[in-house]
């Protein structure tokens, strides 16, 4: 949920609230269906999918595609009290020679 809070706000600002809601629902459904399919293929039984992990992973994927230029500060909680501040950037500053 921390990733949804940090990454989701940037994606929502970028694509809009209504589109974000549709993306969240769509990626959650696709994530659940992929899990059920993989469970059936490899274990021969239908799996149960419940939760938001597929939707959050999908929103993180949308962030990587749509907001690759963003540079943000991400607080990582340590021991529940202190936080380590990590600057995160998806930009690549490599230039071809």
Written overview of the protein:
The structure is a single chain. Strand 1 and strand 2 (82-89) form a beta hairpin. This protein has helices at 2-15, 17-43, 53-66; strands at 71-78, 82-89. A two-stranded antiparallel ribbon has the order 1-2. The chain has 3 helices and 2 strands; from the N terminus they run H-H-H-E-E. By secondary structure, the chain is of the alpha+beta class. The radius of gyration is 17 Å and the shape is globular.
In short:
This protein has 97 residues and is of the alpha+beta class. Helix content is 57%, strand content 16%. It contains 3 helices and 2 strands.
Main beta-sheet strand count, sense and barrel state: 2 strands, antiparallel
- End-to-end distance: 41 Å
The total beta strand count reads 2
For the largest sheet, list the strands in their spatial order: 1-2
SSE inventory with pairings:
Elements: H1 2-15, H2 17-43, H3 53-66, E1 71-78, E2 82-89
Antiparallel strand pairs: 1-2
Annotation keywords:
97 residues, two-stranded antiparallel sheet
């Amino acid at each position: 949920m921390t990733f949804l809070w940090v990454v989701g706000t940037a994606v929502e600002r970028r694509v809009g609230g209504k589109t974000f809601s549709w993306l969240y629902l769509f990626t959650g459904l696709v994530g659940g269906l992929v899990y059920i399919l993989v469970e059936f293929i490899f274990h021969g039984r239908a799996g149960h999918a419940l939760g938001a992990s597929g939707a959050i992973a999908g929103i993180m994927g949308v962030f990587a595609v749509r907001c690759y230029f963003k540079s943000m500060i991400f607080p990582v909680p340590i021991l529940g009290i202190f936080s380590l501040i990590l600057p995160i950037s998806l930009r690549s500053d490599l230039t071809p020679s």
